Amino acid sequence: MANIWRIAGRNLFRYKRRTLLTLSLVVIGIMFVTIFIAVTGSFKSMMIGQITDSSLGHLQIHRQGYLAAIDTLPLTMNFKPQAVKKMEKALQEIPEIEAYSPRIKFGGMFSNFTETTNIRLNGVDPEKELRTVPLLPTRITEGAKTIQKGEILVPELFARGMKVKVGDTVVIIATNRDGSVNGKQLKVGGILESVTGPGGRDGYLHMEDAVEILRMEEMEISEVAIRVKDFSQLNQVFNQLNASLGQEKNMMGKPLFDVSTWEKLSPFYNIARMIDMMTLFIKLMLVAIVLISIMNVMMMAVYERIREIGTIAAMGTMPGKILSMFILEGLFMGLAGAVIGGILSGAVIYVANMAKITFDFGRQTGLILSATINPLDLITVSGIVIVVSILASFQPALKAARMDPIQALGHV
Amino acid sequence: MELVIAQDLTKTYGTGDAAVPALKGLSFSVEKGAFVSFIGPSGSGKTTLLNLIGCLDKPSGGRLAVAGIEISGFGPRDGARFRGKHIGFIFQSFNLIPVLTAFENVEYPLVMVQDVPASTRRERIAALLDSVGMLDQQKKFPDQLSGGQKQRVAIARALVTHPELVLADEPTANLDRDTAQTIIRLMKKMREDLQTTFIFSTHDTRIIDQAERIYRIEDGRLNSNGNQGGTSHG
Lengths: 412, 234
What we know:
The structure holds two protein chains of two kinds.
Chain A: H1 2-12, H2 16-56, E1 59-63, H3 81-92, E2 97-111, E3 116-124, H4 126-132, H5 136-139, E4 140-143, E5 151-155, H6 156-162, E6 169-175, E7 181-192, E8 203-206, H7 207-213, E9 223-228, H8 234-245, E10 257-261, H9 262-265, H10 268-304, H11 306-314, H12 319-354, E11 358-361, E12 364-368, H13 375-401, H14 405-409
Parallel strand pairs in A: 3-8, 5-7
Antiparallel strand pairs in A: 1-9, 1-10, 2-3, 2-6, 2-9, 4-7, 5-8, 6-7, 11-12
Chain B: E1 2-13, E2 20-31, E3 35-39, H1 46-53, E4 61-66, E5 69-70, H2 76-86, E6 87-90, H3 102-113, H4 118-131, H5 147-159, E7 165-169, H6 177-194, E8 197-202, H7 205-208, E9 213-218, E10 221-228
Parallel strand pairs in B: 3-8, 3-9, 6-7, 7-8
Antiparallel strand pairs in B: 1-2, 1-4, 4-5, 9-10
Helix pairs in contact in B: 3-4, 3-5, 4-5, 5-6
């Protein structure tokens, strides 16, 4: 086998310029794809991280049907304490879950004593919430980086519109589940930067304040946000939760819990999918580049070596070995392209990271590009190139293997 | 003992009105260890006959046996297997593989055709290259060798698998007179050393006398039934 490799390698270097040109096409193709994957992947994971870690969480659990009615934040679709206990038990049984945070979501009126407007609020347990969405404090642009009892975190644009600042007293009025109205004075504890996605422009207050405003006799929960230890285990946790909570039925015999990943909850998922689609098309372009360039060079190689093929066939070389010789040449080029392309891509990504390139996303500015290539992606791209190289060589190799030795020997 | 037996051998190219008979009922035999030449003008059927004996082509009729095996019904795979085991080839244009050194060219059939272990290969190739006077040139590539040197390497390559029969189609056509004589003498020496049968085709009158038995082909027919050549079988 080593001899066949040696012959294949030497054959490729018969026409150095042509081989190098083809190889450079393959290398450029690989670099283009891997750098694209690294940059878009970095952008995607950064955005997903921003969205999930600053407001959404990786997963959420709601009562079945709550998401369809989420615009009205219906208190009637909250979980009762008994259901919350079942949920917490299921969550605690899954070691892959790092943290979870129950939330009371409700709509109310926000008054600064001169103006009143409506506001969407999240009542949270500060400790649990900060463990579940650890980037929440980074969104607090003014005030203490936590949520104190008796205080409210007001969204930035909202605060500007209502002309309130940290330390001001405001009143939150909300309609309770039984239809009565209640209000409570709260101090503005911080100003909160908005983020993309659902809940990205909601205010925050302490859960006990929410219970008091809504006059809940027992704590009812609208949703539970969940953070997993390793983001790659998201689907595994999702399936485990569905398996453990899916059996719980309501009085109508329908499923009680609705487990959702961030993908279902955030519109950014569509952008992420678009990025994936673009990556797929770029990969297809790579396939086309490798296929055309290697097939072209291999067809030329067979055409130029017809007499030689006749000679080795006359000596008794079996057609299968002739086939493998030519396929190895294509494979050689694919392998060399994959290795060189992989190394150069790594170098370019390293340099790009050292250069600390910044970009803006929505209202977030100065985000530093942190391009990384997943080894699995690199293996996939290299694998595509190698497989396509073999496929591209196959037809010319088959032509060589099936060549009539007499005609080949007589070729001028 | 007869190594090659042909009985009423025919070969026709094309069919119907376009049929062109290349060989018209040849019958002959070649003894083991013989040094035989088929001579005749261009287009007489010499190369066609060598192609049939070398399993590169199938006869249209008649019987053909080489090394005791009936080969007229062989398909491409059987033919390749048979060639790899029993036959060596020497070509007019040497046909060395340009990316391989002289040593590697001789090594090629052992690696690609016969799967001979490396330790055995090295010894066998060195001995053969020494026999053909090319041991000191073994690391050179074909484009660094003269025509005569290339043909010496080609002879070593043809013999390295220890074939029973070596077929040489116009082996001296691309060589000058002196080199041609040297090559033919070398082929004879190798025949004597290894007891390999040599059949070569030629229309080169300068070397015909070197053959021990000469068959003349004209228009697809044998016009002489193995006349004694200029030198005797050693």
